[in-house]
């Protein structure tokens, strides 16, 4: 726990008031240690990452009545509510909220947003729903962790997959993520390209069992059980290694808050075909660092993937350009610097 001196010097509290590990938690965990290198910061709640000090409930109580204001950076409604309550009860806090949602907000969310001192949106589209001045700061990715392998062919061979190349689609297996779109495109393309094997990596929740079983039946009907693999949820280190085995990544979401897998795959040097969902249009330079397609359109996905599958050298070149774009625009350091700039306007 922080010492008395640490509490006196504290500048930022990063709350995570959600026990289940979610996409919001994942993005928060990644950037928080970077922020802790720029400010005196502490993490309040579950799933604390290494690199940032913990803050317990008793420590929070000790901050009551402190003259110097603290930044409370919320990413969910309950965290905004907690910040508003802290301020009402006498804590000197500046309230920041990051929104990735691409939808109209409920009245309670709109009211909470109106109480914030600064708002960050992860894309221009997210910003358009907030109805007040915002700063757009896209999510970043750790480009040291999500990096190309020294030898992609060796990484692929390590997997034991058939062929020479992998094409992947990562995220929870469900219709919202377009898992069915990916499987249908693979059922039609893989018979033409025997050097490719397809993998889906992501959790299958109980409510999605019927959906996942239907995908498996489609794969079996196509006779592609050994070439379209549904791997389920994997430890994060294994997911990172799977990115390094991919020549092509397919982002097939029908709707998305941001879509972190976009920049994870690009950082690992995979060529990208992405539906126009989440932050895809912000992240991808169409035809340069990836190819954009309409969400839910199997034919468009197929048409975008086939040239890359036909010419893996071209896919590799696109992956190199994609990696460079992430280094320039979507690294965790870029994100943390931009967030810290917002903090400096408040205290």
| Oligomer description | single chain
The CATH architecture category of the largest domain equals 3-Layer(aba) Sandwich
As laid out across the biggest beta sheet, the strand order is 3-2-1-4-5-6-7
> What is the name of the CATH superfamily of the largest domain?
Glycogen Phosphorylase B
Task: Classify the secondary structure makeup into a structural class.
Answer: alpha/beta
As a percent range, the share of strand residues is: 15-25%
Distance between the termini: 24 Å
| Number of E-type strands | 13
CATH topology of the largest domain: Rossmann fold
Q: Identify low-pLDDT runs.
A: none
Report the order of strands and helices.
HEHEEHEHEHEHEHEHEHEHEHEHEHHH
Task: Name the CATH class of the largest domain.
Answer: Alpha Beta
Shape: elongated
Mean of residue pLDDT?
94
Q: Largest beta sheet, briefly?
A: 7 strands, parallel
Cα radius of gyration in angstroms: 22 Å
How many independent structural domains?
2
Helix content: 40-55%
Chain-wise SSE layout:
Layout: H1 4-9, E1 12-16, H2 23-36, E2 41-45, E3 53-54, H3 57-62, E4 70-74, H4 77-88, E5 93-99, H5 107-114, E6 118-121, H6 124-128, E7 135-136, H7 152-159, E8 165-170, H8 179-189, E9 196-201, H9 209-221, E10 228-232, H10 236-245, E11 246-251, H11 260-267, E12 271-275, H12 280-283, E13 291-293, H13 298-310, H14 312-329, H15 332-346
């Amino acid at each position: 726990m922080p010492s008395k001196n640490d509490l006196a010097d504290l500048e930022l509290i990063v709350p995570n008031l959600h026990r289940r590990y979610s996409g919001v938690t994942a993005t928060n965990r990644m950037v928080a240690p970077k922020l802790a290198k720029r400010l005196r910061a502490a993490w309040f709640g579950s799933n604390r990452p290494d690199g940032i000090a913990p803050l317990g409930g008793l420590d929070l109580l000790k901050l009551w009545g402190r003259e110097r204001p603290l930044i409370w950076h919320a990413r969910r409604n309950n965290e905004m509510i907690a910040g508003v309550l802290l301020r009402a009860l006498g804590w000197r806090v500046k309230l920041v909220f990051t929104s990735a949602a691409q939808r109209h907000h409920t009245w309670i969310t709109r009211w909470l947003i109106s109480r914030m001192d600064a708002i960050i949106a992860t894309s221009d589209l997210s910003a358009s729903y907030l109805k007040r001045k915002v700063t757009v700061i896209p999510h970043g990715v750790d480009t040291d962790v999500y990096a190309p392998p020294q030898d992609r062919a060796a990484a692929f061979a390590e997997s034991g997959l058939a062929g020479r190349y992998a094409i992947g689609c990562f995220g929870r297996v469900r219709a919202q993520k377009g898992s069915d779109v990916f499987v249908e495109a693979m059922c039609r393309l893989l018979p033409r390209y025997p050097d490719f094997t397809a993998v889906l990596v992501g959790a299958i929740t109980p409510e999605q069992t019927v959906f996942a079983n239907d995908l498996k039946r489609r794969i079996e009907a196509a006779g592609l059980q050994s070439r379209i693999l549904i791997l389920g949820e994997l430890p994060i280190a294994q997911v990172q290694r799977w990115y390094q085995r991919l020549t092509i990544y397919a982002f097939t979401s029908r709707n998305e808050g941001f879509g972190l897998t976009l920049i994870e795959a690009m950082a690992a040097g995979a060529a990208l075909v992405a539906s126009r969902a989440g932050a895809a249009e912000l992240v991808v330079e169409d035809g340069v660092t990836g190819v954009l397609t309409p969400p839910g359109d199997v034919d468009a996905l197929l048409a975008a993937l086939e040239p890359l599958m036909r010419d893996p050298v071209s896919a590799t070149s696109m992956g190199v350009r994609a990696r460079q774009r992430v280094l320039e625009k979507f690294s965790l350091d870029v994100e943390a610097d931009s967030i810290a700039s917002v903090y400096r306007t408040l205290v």
